[in-house]
Each structure stands twice: as structure tokens, then as C-alpha cells.
Amino acid sequence: MSKEKPKTTKCILCNNHFEGVGHNPAPLEDSKFRCCDGCNSARVVPYRVYKLREQRKQNANPDAIAIYQCSVTFDNEEWFKIPLERFIELTEGRGYYKKDSALEALIGAKRIRTPWAYFKYEKL
Ligand SMILES: [Zn+2]
């Protein structure tokens, strides 16, 4: 137990208090507020990537709506569908990717690997 109570900030998205500087929650909330690590990884970053992808897609084909799914394999045989939050845990959470960089890498490359797993991102 620490003796001093650390300074905390209230996350604008989940209302939990967190230590440290937090993240810019835009475009989900005004950038004058801050959000926690969990909300940033699980909500803000995926939403930014989603918006970016939608914009690109609209430029290419205004009617196209595609749903993408992330999958992981640990033995390169059996693939498991996982939510993007889990993908971020398995990459950034283990320090293999820098914070907020794994999802963009996956979407850009469609397939990436770490020493413990392969990940793919494909249209359903
Ligand atoms: Zn939060």
C-alpha cells in the first residue's frame, strides 16, 4: 500500500479514476477531457480506425459495408476468432507493439506475427 494517495483523473468514457496522463478521447468525447488506458484501447483507437476505414471505403465504393474479424493462432493450425480488445492485450499488452500501434499495423498488413502467435484480419 502506498502512503500517498496518487493524483487520479476521472475517465470521461467509463467514469473510473486512473493514474497518469491518460489519453485524448476524441472523437468519442471532446478532447478537453481524458480517458483511461482501457477505454483508449477498447473504444477510442478502434473507433478512429473504423472511421478512417469507412472514409477510405466511401471514397472507393459508397455502398460497400464490410465486416472484419480478427483471428489468432498459436500453433499455425487452429484459428480462433477474437475481439480487437483481446488482440491489443496479446500484442501491446505484452509489450511487443507500442501502445496504440498494433491495430493499425494489423489493419494495414492484414496478417502479423509475434513470437507467440499469428494474427489475421479479414473480411467475413
Ligand atoms: Zn475508461
Brief overview:
With 124 residues, the chain is of the alpha+beta class. It is 32% helix and 21% strand.
Description:
- This protein has helices at residues 37-60, 84-91, 102-109; strands spanning 8-10, 17-19, 68-73, 80-82, 111-114, 117-123.
- The strands form two sheets. Strands 4-3-6-5 form a four-stranded antiparallel beta sheet, with helices on one face.
- A hairpin with a 6-residue loop joins strand 1 and strand 2.
- It has 124 residues and is of the alpha+beta class.
- The protein is flat and about 50 Å long.
- Helix content is 32%, strand content 21%.
- It folds into two domains: 8-59, no CATH class; 62-123, no CATH class.
- The mean pLDDT is 88.
- Zinc ion (ZN) is lined by residues 11, 13-14, 16, 35-36, 38-39.
List the helices and strands and how they pair.
Elements: E1 8-10, E2 17-19, H1 37-60, E3 68-73, E4 80-82, H2 84-91, H3 102-109, E5 111-114, E6 117-123
Bound molecules: zinc ion.
Low-confidence stretches: none
Number of helices: 3
How much of the sequence lies in strands comes to 15-25%
- The tally of strands reads 6
Sketch the topology as an H/E string, one letter per element.
EEHEEHHEE
Radius of gyration: 17 Å
Question: What is the 3D form?
Answer: flat
Helix content: 25-40%
Cofactors, ions, other ligands? zinc ion
